[in-house]
Amino acid sequence: MVIQWPVIIEFAQGHDYAWAAGFDEVTEHRLEAGDRLLDSHGHAHVLSHANGAGLYWQHSEGVVSVPQLNIKLQRYAASLGVCCTSKLQVRTPADAIALVAWLEQH
């Protein structure tokens, strides 16, 4: 499945996120197996490791749960010192991507 840009990167080692407009920006981050790309259509792509083949992006079936993503993004915003995080609500994966981009700018 083709990745629909822009995306957010959900790092497996913690509750951090990053925004990326394209693949070049994704590769600027220190990625590890288990990190996920969440694209603008709600599809997840997990960075997987194959024996001898290195790391590759593997499409996950289904779409991201927006209610679960809301909870995670509220925790992330709180860790950045944003107040009133309960008011941060996304309705779509595209909203989530826009929120992470906004959080990175502030």
Can you describe what's shown?
- The protein has 106 residues and is α+β, with helices and mostly antiparallel strands.
- The protein is 29% helix and 24% strand.
- It contains three helices and five strands; from the N terminus they run E-E-H-E-E-E-H-H.
- The chain has helices at 23-26, 66-79, 93-105, and strands at residues 7-10, 17-20, 36-39, 44-50, 54-59.
- A hairpin with a 6-residue loop joins strand 1 and strand 2.
- Helix 2 (66-79) packs parallel to helix 3.
- The radius of gyration is 14 Å and the shape is globular.
- The chain starts with 6 loop residues before the first strand and ends with a helix.
- This is DUF4144 family protein.
- Pfam families: DUF4144.
- InterPro entries: DUF4144 (IPR025284).
**What overall geometry do the principal axes of the alpha carbons give?**
globular
The arrangement of helices and strands along the chain is EEHEEEHH
Computed structural class: alpha+beta
Helix proportion? 25-40%
Radius of gyration: 14 Å
Tell how many strands the DSSP assignment holds.
5
Uncertain residue ranges: none
Summarize it:
It comes from Oceanisphaera ostreae. InterPro entries: DUF4144. With 106 residues, this protein is of the alpha+beta class.
